[in-house]
Every structure is written in C-alpha cells, then in structure tokens.
C-alpha cells in the first residue's frame, strides 16, 4: 500500500498591527496611535519608544484603516482614450512624478474612446475612493458630466471640454493646425488634406477650425472632401489617404495626427508610389520617434507633453486641497492652463509638383 505525504505551504506571517506596536513600546493604544499619526500630544520618551517598536516590528499602517479615518486614500485616477498612444506615455509619466512628490499613488485606466467605458471606469474609481481624477479626451465630451462628477471629487480635464467652474489643461491645437496649414500655403500648396481625430473631441475640432481659418485667410476654398476625421486610427487613415491620393485632383500635402494616423498615411504614399516630399508634403501633429527617424524626417507640430502632465497634476493637487478643506468649488471660477504648440521643421515639405508632373 502506498502512503501519501501531505504537504502544506507555510502560513503567511500575521500582519503587525498598531496594538503590537503599542504592546512592544509599553504604551497605550491611544498613545501609539497619536505618535504614529502625529495627531496629538505625546511625550518625547513615548514617541521614541513607539518609533523604535514600529521599526523593529516592520510596522506598516493599514491603508484601508487610514482611508476610513482620514477620508482620503492617497490615490489618484487617470483615464486616457488609448494607452498604446506613445504621446500619452510621456504625459502619464509626468503626472506620476509630480503626484509622487506629494505622496500620491496613481492608477491609470483606458477608456478606448468610449463614453460607456469612461463612465464605468469613473464609477469604479469613485467606489475605490480615489482622491481625484484626471480625464483625457473621450468619445462624447459633456461638460455637464464633469460638473456632476466634481460635486464630490476633485476632477481635472486634460485636453477636453469643461464647464464654467471646471478646471483643466488645453493644448492650443487651433494655432498648431493654423500654422501648419499656413506653412504649406506659403510653399504654394492649395490642395491640403487634414486627417485628425474625431471632430467630436476638442483636439480634433480645434484642429479643423485652425485649418479652415488658415485657408479662408488666403482665400482658398475649403474642400470638405479633404477633411477626414474618425474614431479609429491607422485603418481609416490608410484607406482614406489612398483614396485621396488616387483621385484626379489629389492633395499635394497632408496634415495628419501622429502615431497611427501618420503610419497609415505613410503606408498609402508608399503603396500609391508618391514620394515625400517630391510628390506630396507631409506634416504630423504630435512629435515622436516615427517622425524623427523616418527618412526623410517629418516636419511636426509639437508641444511640451511633460508640461501637460505636470500642469494637470498641479491643478488636481490644488483641487484636492480645496475639497479636503470643504471649499465651495462651485463658487470659484475654473482654471485653464493653455499650452502653446511649435513647428519643428524637418525634411518632409517642399513646393507642390508642377501641374502634370
């Protein structure tokens, strides 16, 4: 008869509690609590005894108990539409660095540019008792929704619409698109295609307005067929760019959002046999590795991504302070930080080819 040996995994060590610290320090539970939380009168001798005991026992405060006691969690939520977008990575890092300096942790979520997903994630974050939220662009930007969420939670809008009493960070996408279009007009282009994110989102809407303003200023009629915006990215940009380049009256220049849309446009130019910049000029909105390393290097509309993240974190920290102090956030006017764009000139733009070329 075979015998069986039962093996058991070692039990996890019991969590050290404040009662253990008080017992080791030889003080009351109340004294230990006041010493550890710096929340009341404690003698120097008792304070030192508690600190020694806590260090010897490797005591760590229970975050749930702390949250219940203080009404704060020390955690901030951040939602963006697409975590795969490398532009967001730099913004998120900047937010995290600034928040960590104040002792906050950050939880990041992906809305997939879906209103329903955003509302689900916001509800989840609220139930997890986050101290504040930073919300990036999403499918349907309703300032009333932000007003509703901010009634009992610090909220900062990042490159999206917010109401009269809301706060947020905006990049001047109008000016960026305006200057990019004007630069191409100065080179002699009049057939300029714009490929950007959904016009329902503030960045896409502002770029379209800036593009139109530059054309109208020069007396160039706006051809709506050259303005392409969509929720999706590379798939739409490749098919749309290929269709535009195959048309008889094709565009001689493109302004396109970086990363995936830019990749789709580059694929379309290659497949259609058009050379950058000899046959078609190209400006991307948002700088990164692809426009810098592509040959020829691509002229870009750039802005300080780290400044976006830092500014969003700064505004949120002030809003959290206002909420904790019980300030009437509705009585105060909202705060907007607006960041400028700049053109980074490289090798992807040239005068349009001669007619018939």
Automatic annotation (TrEMBL):
InterPro entries assigned to the protein according to its UniProt record, in alphabetical order: HTH_LacI (IPR000843), LacI/GalR-like_sensor (IPR046335), Lambda_DNA-bd_dom_sf (IPR010982), Peripla_BP_I (IPR028082)
Segments forming domain HTH lacI-type: 16-70
Transcription regulation in keyword set: yes
One of the record's GO molecular function terms: transcription cis-regulatory region binding
UniProt entry keywords in alphabetical sequence: DNA-binding, Transcription, Transcription regulation
SUPFAM superfamilies hit by this protein: lambda repressor-like DNA-binding domains, Periplasmic binding protein-like I
Organism domain of life: Bacteria
A Pfam match: LacI
UniProt protein name: LacI family transcriptional regulator
Organism encoding this protein: Cupriavidus phytorum
Origin organism lineage: Bacteria, Pseudomonadati, Pseudomonadota, Betaproteobacteria, Burkholderiales
